[in-house]
């Protein structure tokens, strides 16, 4: 007998019924037979038939119990079940459907009807399985394409960051390190993977707006003039302008826009306060200050990580989110 033929399990405690059903179906299907509910469950979990013709009235375990048991297991819940019984009132039929059966045949049954219904439900089951398999393939393709698009976006972002840093060698690596610190701390603070991805992109590009500031100002040793500082302050808005039109599910442009905002409203460009500033930006702001202070600049030598941590501790709750400051102190003290 071909293994390609569907496997049908006949469950009935009456030998005469079994003989009729076997003779009806043996030419078209592989058949299994069980004379009790317990035997039916054993057979079904071992061989996973495509369809079960299930008698309801049986001693010890009735057909409803067998059906409920099969539908409760992920292993056997896909098996199509047709009830076969002499009970014909509507409530019996409804109960069968509620338990997950696909059909109901009333005894005494006509051979042609049994054949037709078994064939119909096996075809439906096959179609459903094919649709499910197709859906799985489509989902995998969508995931692959999404991953490719994300990789392209990441590579583009890295390239943009490099362009910015080429003009401004003193801050080369600054954005990468800020992104790393901010992501590590966001992870410690329990932010979602999605938020951490966004912080990473925002970190890598937060100062991209400096591309519009003359190199002579960016790289000039000594203290900046007020007018020069005003020019530099525009960079977070410029970063936003450059990033806002990149189609992306992550709001990294807005996070970059807010990286110089301060908790007490003394920051720029919009003097936002407290929760008006995104949590991602509050984290980025602290990472930015720590990295900038602990690195060399044209106008001063590196101040060191200890001095940077003292600075954020001093302004905990004033400029910087207290929880964020605590998480950074914790992060750098390890
Ligand atoms: Fe900045
Ligand atoms: Fe920065």
Describe the structure.
The protein has two domains: 7-137, Response regulator (Rossmann fold); 168-333, Hypothetical protein af1432. It is 57% helix and 7% strand. The protein is built from 14 helices and five strands. The protein has helices at 15-25, 37-47, 63-71, 90-98, 111-167, 174-188, 193-205, 215-218, 226-233, 235-243, 252-257, 279-294, 305-314, 322-333; strands at residues 7-11, 30-34, 51-55, 80-85, 103-106. α4 links the parallel β4 and β5. α12 (279-294) crosses α13 (305-314). The longest helix has 57 residues, at 111-167. It binds fe (ii) ion (2 copies). One fe (ii) ion binds next to α10.
List keywords for this structure.
5 strands, 2 domains, alpha/beta, 57% helix, binds fe (ii) ion, Hypothetical protein af1432, rod-shaped, 334 residues, Rossmann fold, 5-stranded parallel sheet
In short:
The chain has 334 residues and is α/β, with parallel strands linked by helices. It is 57% helix and 7% strand. 32% of the residues are buried.
Helix/strand layout:
Elements: E1 7-11, H1 15-25, E2 30-34, H2 37-47, E3 51-55, H3 63-71, E4 80-85, H4 90-98, E5 103-106, H5 111-167, H6 174-188, H7 193-205, H8 215-218, H9 226-233, H10 235-243, H11 252-257, H12 279-294, H13 305-314, H14 322-333
Parallel strand pairs: 1-2, 1-3, 3-4, 4-5
Helix pairs in contact: 1-5, 2-3, 6-7, 6-12, 6-14, 12-13
Bound molecules: fe (ii) ion (2 copies).
One fe (ii) ion (FE2) is lined by residues 206-207, 235-236, 259-260, 288.
């Amino acid at each position: 007998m071909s293994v390609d033929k569907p496997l049908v399990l006949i469950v009935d405690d009456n030998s005469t019924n079994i003989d009729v059903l076997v003779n009806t179906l043996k030419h078209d299907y592989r058949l299994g037979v069980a004379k009790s509910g317990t035997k039916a469950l054993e057979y079904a979990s071992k061989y996973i038939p495509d369809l079960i013709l299930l008698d309801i009235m049986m001693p010890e375990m009735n057909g409803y119990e067998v059906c409920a048991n099969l539908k409760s297991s992920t292993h056997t819940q896909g098996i199509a079940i047709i009830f076969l019984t002499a009970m014909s009132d509507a409530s019996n039929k409804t109960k069968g459907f509620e338990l997950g059966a696909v059909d109901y045949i009333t005894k005494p049954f006509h051979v042609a009807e049994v054949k037709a219904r078994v064939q119909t439900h096996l075809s439906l089951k096959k179609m459903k399985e094919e649709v499910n398999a197709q859906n799985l393939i489509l989902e995998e393709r969508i995931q692959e394409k999404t991953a490719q698009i994300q990789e392209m976006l990441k590579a583009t972002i890295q390239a943009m960051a490099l362009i910015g840093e080429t003009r401004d060698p003193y801050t080369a690596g600054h954005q990468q390190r800020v992104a790393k610190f901010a992501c590590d701390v966001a992870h410690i603070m329990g932010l979602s993977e999605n938020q951490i991805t966004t912080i990473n992109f925002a970190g890598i590009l937060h100062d991209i707006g400096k591309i519009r500031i003359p190199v002579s100002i960016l790289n000039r040793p000594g203290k900046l003039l007020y007018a020069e500082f005003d020019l530099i302050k525009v960079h977070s808005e410029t970063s936003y302008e450059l990033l806002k039109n990149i189609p992306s599910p992550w709001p990294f442009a807005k996070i970059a826009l807010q990286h110089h905002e301060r908790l007490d409203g003394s920051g720029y460009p919009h003097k936002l306060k407290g929760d008006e500033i995104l949590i991602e930006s509050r984290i980025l702001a602290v990472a930015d200050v720590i990295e900038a202070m602990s690195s060399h600049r044209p106008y001063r030598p590196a101040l060191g990580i200890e001095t940077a941590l003292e600075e954020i501790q001093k302004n905990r709750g004033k400029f910087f989110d207290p929880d964020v400051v605590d998480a950074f102190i914790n992060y750098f003290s390890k």
